[in-house]
Amino acid sequence: MFEALADRLEGAWKKLRGQDKISEANIQEALREVRRALLEADVNLQVVKDFVAEVQEKALGAEVISGVRPDQQFIKIVHDQLVEVMGETNVPLAEAESAPTIVLMAGLQGTGKTTATAKLALHLRKQNRSTLLVATDVYRPAAIDQLITLGKQINVPVFELGTDANPVEIARQGVAKAREDGINTVIIDTAGRLQIDEDMMDELAQIKDTVQPHEVLLVVDAMTGQEAASLTRTFHDRIGITGAILTKLDGDTRGGAALSVRQISGQPIKFVGVGEKVEALQPFYPDRMASRILG
Ligand code: GDP
């Protein structure tokens, strides 16, 4: 569906034959191709503009490397810049000095938040970290049932107080229970709405104030593309996130949301969801994502 950036750049660089250096005059068409490739990968427009400006500056300032064609050098600059923006290396989940580590999951409904909660628990178990899942979405009984079912499936306890309790209180008691039981990490699943909604934000802010989590992970559906940018901005401004989980990367999206999320929040993407099954969670690696975004 998408041409690789290298192929796309070929035409742009044809004019360069006989020239051995990146220059202001010859770089414009190549930058346009980068811009197009990123927009097709669903990176947010403003993020693309900032990114391209940065690449231009780096490319013009780059030293000529003998034996390396300027087009190859240019592609490497683009790739390296993508990796740099996305944070260079994988950043693991925080672990509190004294247990329990408290993780608050945030995001819109349908993004894969509840699934990611269970996936994370399974991932931590492989590191011998015990978990307690806390169900605070009292607005949708199905959401609590879903977490209970997932908990059973992976053999992890779920704390819930039904649908009549106050979500902030459920979170508080869930953390107390984890502390009492000597659990390593408590993961709080919260209510999502179809769209950003003031009540949802208020509730999340209150839960955060009350439990003082070590991690606030925003769950972002990679398929939402451009919208990931405004979603990230809203959640980060309002709640303050410490990282993100990008879900549904098993689809055919190029994953441009990864670049938007990182550039806008400055916080790392820690994991990616690559399927509906509880095992389908992987650590996020910036270099792999850079290659994917470039197509
Ligand atoms: P929530 O409303 O945010 O809690 O979302 P759910 O966890 O209920 O997930 C919504 C839908 O997305 C479900 O059908 C999940 O099976 C599916 N889902 C979640 N994560 C992934 C993923 O990484 N890949 C795919 N293909 N589907 C996913």
TrEMBL record:
Primary localisation category: cytoplasm
Domain SRP54-type proteins GTP-binding: 268-281
GO cellular component, as recorded: signal recognition particle
GO molecular function: 7S RNA binding; GTP binding; GTPase activity
UniProt keyword list: Cytoplasm, GTP-binding, Hydrolase, Nucleotide-binding, Ribonucleoprotein, RNA-binding, Signal recognition particle
Listed EC numbers: 3.6.5.4
Protein name per the record: Signal recognition particle protein
Annotated source species: Thermoleptolyngbya sichuanensis A183
